[in-house]
Amino acid sequence: MKRIICALLCLAMLPILPICGEGAVKVYGGQDNSQMKIALSFDDGPHPRNTERILDILAEYSIKATFFVVGENVEYYSAAAIRAVREGHEIGNHTYTHPHIAKLDRVSLDLEVAKCQETVKRVLGYDMRLFRPPEGVVDDAVKVMAGEQDYSVILWRIDTRDWAGTSSSDICANVSRNIKSGDIILMHDYFSKGCHTVEALEKMIPMLLERGYNFVTVGELIGIEK
Fold first, then answer.
1. Active site (annotated) includes residue 47
2. Residue 5 lies in a domain
3. What's the pLDDT tens digit per position in 182-192?
4. For position 155, which CATH number holds?
5. Confidence grade of residue 13 (pLDDT, cut at 50, 70, 90)
6. Does residue 7 sit within a domain?
7. I need a surface site. Which of 52, 145, 169, 224 has the fewest CB within 10 A?
8. Is 3 within the bounds of a domain?
9. Which residue range forms the structural domain that includes residue 118?
10. Which residues contact 92 (CB under 8 A, 6 or more apart)?
């Protein structure tokens, strides 16, 4: 009996943490709709060359996209990020240094997200409401953080695997075969030589427009607009 009482007392002394039950934090891979709306999203930028090339293509077709930025890249390559905001694109939080989230403690996670938020606000004058965890890791710590900081967590339904050097034809075939209304497409604007993101985008966009899809930002797709 003494052991039971002691155990109950110990439990009572533990800190009370926010409960992240179903619906407490919204995690989106897309949002079904009947208007053929889809969203392009780009991770890891900005990049001084790649982001500019992608923005040129988006401008050609008057398409708005969502860029999940890494805070330190916003510091280094602010011109591309400033242009993205000026041209009406959406900005989301992708942490400050793109760490392996599963290896972070809660304090470090909060600092990564907060530092990215502060940097984007200072450099771009932009308040972010969307968070995409690096590598798509959504654990309890991410859910608690997102709930406390009022972020919607954004994943994707179609991974183009552009970061892996997938050919532009294979990227387009993957998207063409799997796309449906409400999907979020994952691409990257910070990538190394040998990636075919730009070439794929040049083929994808006219193909999807011809099939009747309407490109919107992630925020518009899920019903959260600035």
1. no
2. no
3. 999 999 999 88
4. 3.20.20.370
5. very low
6. no
7. 169
8. no
9. 30-222
10. 41, 66, 67, 68, 69, 128, 129, 130, 131, 132, 154, 218
DSSP H helix total and E strand total for the chain: 9, 9
* 188 tagged catalytic: yes
189 lies in a domain?
A: yes
Catalytic member of 89, 98, 188, 196 = 188
Reply yes or no on whether the pLDDT at 101 is more than 60.
yes
51, pLDDT greater than 90: yes
Give pTM, 2 decimals. Answer: 0.89
**E strands present in the chain:** 27-28, 37-43, 66-69, 90-93, 130-131, 152-154, 158-159, 184-188, 214-216
Residue 114 is encoded by which pair of tokens? Answer: 């907060």
Q: How confident is the model at residue 226 (pLDDT cuts 50, 70, 90)?
A: low
Q: Are 71 and 92 in contact (CB under 8 A)?
A: no
Given the residues 43, 44, 162, 183, select the one marked as catalytic: 43
